[in-house]
Design goal:
Layout: H1 3-10, H2 12-19, H3 24-39, E1 49-54, H4 61-72, E2 79-82, H5 91-96, H6 104-109, E3 116-121, H7 128-140, E4 142-144, E5 150-152, E6 156-162, H8 166-171, H9 177-191, H10 194-197, E7 202-205, H11 211-231
Parallel strand pairs: 1-6, 1-7, 2-3, 3-6
Antiparallel strand pairs: 4-5
């Protein structure tokens, strides 16, 4: 790799820490997977890396996928699918096409890209047949569309997010975080198929955010918006 790319990977933990607040424990495992993927140390027959991010809404699960994708792939965005829209039997056809010549929403989204991040939000809401597709993605880094085209996904990171166990986690706010992690992951293993969970590189539980952390995130978002408006000629106080 070029020296500039090595330096990029060295700065990755610092970059993630700047943007993801209150989740210091997720930085190391995420960076470990990303570094292996970028250095070519991951299994070439599988995606560069895969994640299952679990936790309550608004704690940074989707945001960390956005941040590392922009950082590693020159300001690119993840290819995102909301699994709440794929709850029926026909969801597979919607995703990969329903007849010969149709590539589905996934095929159209991947038409001109061969690397990046695939983000599947709220995976627990997907129909079981859609989960079967994910088994193929994680095992072979490929998916066959209705058109007959086989898409190679070995250049992608695959991210699943889920709110499984969020209610239990909120009730355990005073408990040690290690206990919360065990409880949430046990619920994940109950609700999701073990063969799917077992193929994911890293399963990471996100913590509920303290009020002070929520304020810091809010301040960061406001500053980002002020900067955007300043570029348009507006000065906001």
């Amino acid at each position: 790799m070029k020296a500039s790319n090595i330096e990029l990977l060295r700065r990755l933990p610092e970059h993630l820490s700047e943007h993801i607040k209150g989740q210091d424990h997720v930085i190391h495992p995420v960076c470990s997977v990303l570094r292996r993927g970028e250095l070519g140390l991951a299994n070439a027959r599988r995606p560069r890396g895969s994640f299952l991010f679990v936790g309550p809404t608004g704690v940074g699960k989707t945001e960390i996928a956005n941040v590392f994708t922009e950082y590693l792939f020159a300001d690119a965005k993840p290819v995102r699918f909301d699994m709440s829209e794929y709850q029926t039997h026909s969801s597979v056809e919607k995703l990969i096409g329903e007849k010969v010549g149709d590539v589905g929403l996934l095929g159209r989204a991947l038409k001109n890209i061969d690397h990046g991040t695939l983000l599947f939000d709220e995976i627990e809401k997907a129909h079981p047949l859609v989960l079967d597709l994910f088994l193929q993605v994680l095992e072979d880094a490929a998916i066959t569309l209705a058109s007959g085209e086989r898409k190679n996904l070995s250049g992608f990171y695959v991210v699943f997010t889920s709110n499984i166990g969020a209610a239990e986690a909120m009730r355990m706010r005073s408990a040690p975080f290690a206990s919360v992690q065990r409880t949430v992951l046990a619920r994940v293993n109950q609700q999701l198929r073990p063969e799917l969970v077992g193929r994911v590189t890293e399963k990471i539980v996100f913590a509920s955010l303290e009020y002070s952390t929520q304020r810091a995130i809010c301040a960061q978002m406001i500053e980002r918006e002020v900067t955007r408006l300043r570029a348009l000629g507006f000065e906001i106080q």
